[in-house]
């Protein structure tokens, strides 16, 4: 049996995680027991929510345990099976990422069809991040045709899909923000946003006012902080915000100040609503039909940033927090 390397969290990060908070640990790969499969991971997902799991705080997902393999979305090939319905060679999606080989309970693995498209799509555009954009925009913010929509983190996995979805669903105007001029160019070019700005160049409130002088109806929030405050000021009567993430504060060591303009919610009858994609899996079949169709027809575009090698996983994760990715950040583990 081969050896497998897995990333362990060895210290809880304070502020920005440091490479020394993680260790790559080698172990023997066991044979699958009854109902289990052994998977050689081919692609690992790194995601912003993993920063939250590095804290020792009660949340919707339990904290990563110290000195144990970390977990996360992954896609791999079955190399040994002791479970009905799974054969050697099948491709499966599961949640034991951050490692080369995973011993997975078959109940926690989903077979994917490798002929249906690139395998990485199941971690991004047709996966958890794609569904998050769909749920947040259509169910949580209840975007309607004719709405003006603002998306932050708009060149990322969730944001790029939320913005394009708004356009496909008949938004009057779609505005995005991102952290570099190249990303801004991508938004107004390939992704078809009507306007976009680089939030590092000038205050968000000022740039949003210029991009949406008549205000917005929907805000898809991936960032929190100044972005959320600016969006609240821009929201029109009966406006809605889907609170998806608040990445601007994920490495903060002190509680972050809230928006100073919550008083506007009353008179403007605004709704700000947080959500977790995992509470809305009933929308998955509908999402897969819609997004699969748009992808085939070339109406939905996506980028992936692929980093190669198990040894690069921590760098990929830190790169994601720093904005080094365009679209879904993925680690490839070629055989
Ligand atoms: P992503 O957007 O592909 O990658 C993260 C991006 O965040 C970076 O590329 C960077 O882009 C941006 N960023 C980092 N620090 C920032 C800051 N201080 N201010 C503004 N932008 C910053 O990641 P994703 O997987 O699509 O996730 C996007 C958001 O959705 C995250 O907040 C995540 O936690 C959330 N999420 C929520 C759910 C849910 O169920 N609620 C599910 C999935 C994801 P720039 O170069 O533009 O700075
Ligand atoms: C999930 C619920 C939420 C999940 C990811 C998230 C991987 C992400 C939340 C965030 O990034 O804030 O079930 O599955």
CATH superfamily of the largest domain: NAD(P)-binding Rossmann-like Domain
In DSSP terms, counting alpha (H) and pi (I) runs of 4 or more, how many helices?
A: 9
Mean pLDDT: 97
Provide the low-confidence segments as ranges. Answer: none
How do the SSEs run, as a string of H and E? EEEHEEEEHEHEHEHEHEHEHEHE
Strand composition percent: 25-35%
Distance linking N and C termini: 15 Å
> Which molecules are bound besides the chains?
NADP nicotinamide-adenine-dinucleotide phosphate, 3-(4-hydroxy-3-methoxyphenyl)-2-propenoic acid
Tally of domains:
2
Largest sheet: 7 strands, mixed
Computed Rg:
20 Å
Helix percentage range: 10-25%
Structure notes:
It is a single chain. The chain has 335 residues and is of the alpha/beta class. The chain has 2 domains: 3-120 and 303-332, Quinone Oxidoreductase, Chain A, domain 1, CATH 3.90.180; 128-279, Rossmann fold (3-Layer(aba) Sandwich), CATH 3.40.50. 25% of the residues lie in helices and 26% in strands. It has 9 helices and 15 strands. Helix 9 (313-322) links the parallel strand 14 and strand 15 (328-332). Helix 2 packs across helix 3 (157-168). The model has no long low-confidence stretch (mean pLDDT 97).
Strand and helix map with partners:
Elements: E1 3-9, E2 22-28, E3 36-45, H1 49-53, E4 74-81, E5 91-94, E6 101-105, E7 110-112, H2 128-140, E8 148-151, H3 157-168, E9 173-178, H4 181-188, E10 195-198, H5 204-211, E11 216-221, H6 225-234, E12 235-243, H7 264-267, E13 271-274, H8 284-296, E14 304-308, H9 313-322, E15 328-332
Parallel strand pairs: 8-9, 8-11, 9-10, 11-12, 12-13, 14-15
Antiparallel strand pairs: 1-2, 3-4, 3-6, 3-15, 4-5, 5-7
Bound molecules: NADP nicotinamide-adenine-dinucleotide phosphate (NAP) and 3-(4-hydroxy-3-methoxyphenyl)-2-propenoic acid (FER).
3-(4-hydroxy-3-methoxyphenyl)-2-propenoic acid is lined by residues 47-49, 73, 128, 245, 276-278.
């Amino acid at each position: 049996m081969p050896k497998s390397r897995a990333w362990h969290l060895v210290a809880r990060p304070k502020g920005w995680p440091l490479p020394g908070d993680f260790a790559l640990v080698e172990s023997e790969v066991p044979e699958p027991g009854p109902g289990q499969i052994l998977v050689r991971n081919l692609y690992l997902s790194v995601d912003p929510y993993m920063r939250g799991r590095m804290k020792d705080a009660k949340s919707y997902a339990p904290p990563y345990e110290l000195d144990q393999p970390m977990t996360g979305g992954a896609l791999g090939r079955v190399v040994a099976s002791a479970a009905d319905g799974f054969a050697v060679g099948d491709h499966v999606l599961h949640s034991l990422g951050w490692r080369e080989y995973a011993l997975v309970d078959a109940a926690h693995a989903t077979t994917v069809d490798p002929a249906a498209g690139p395998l990485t799509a199941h971690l991004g555009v047709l996966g958890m991040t794609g569904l998050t954009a769909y749920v947040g925009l259509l169910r949580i913010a209840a975007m309607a045709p004719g709405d003006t929509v603002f998306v932050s983190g708009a060149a990322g996995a969730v944001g790029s899909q939320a913005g394009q979805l708004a356009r496909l669903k008949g938004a009057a105007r779609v505005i995005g923000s991102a952290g570099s001029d190249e990303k801004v160019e991508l938004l107004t070019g390939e992704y078809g946003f009507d306007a976009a700005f680089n939030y590092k160049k000038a205050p968000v409130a000022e740039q949003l006012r210029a991009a949406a002088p008549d205000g917005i109806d929907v805000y898809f929030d991936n960032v929190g902080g100044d972005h959320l405050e600016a969006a609240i000021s821009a929201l029109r009567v009966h406006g809605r915000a889907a609170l998806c993430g608040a990445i601007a504060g994920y490495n903060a060591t002190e509680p972050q100040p809230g928006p100073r303009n919550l008083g506007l919610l009353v008179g403007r009858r605004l709704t700000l609503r947080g959500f977790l994609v995992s509470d809305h899996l009933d929308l998955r079949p509908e999402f897969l039909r819609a997004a699969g169709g748009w992808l085939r027809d070339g109406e939905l575009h996506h980028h992936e940033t692929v980093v190669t090698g198990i040894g690069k996983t921590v760098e990929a994760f830190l790169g994601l927090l720093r904005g080094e990715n365009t679209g879904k950040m993925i680690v490839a583990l070629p055989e």
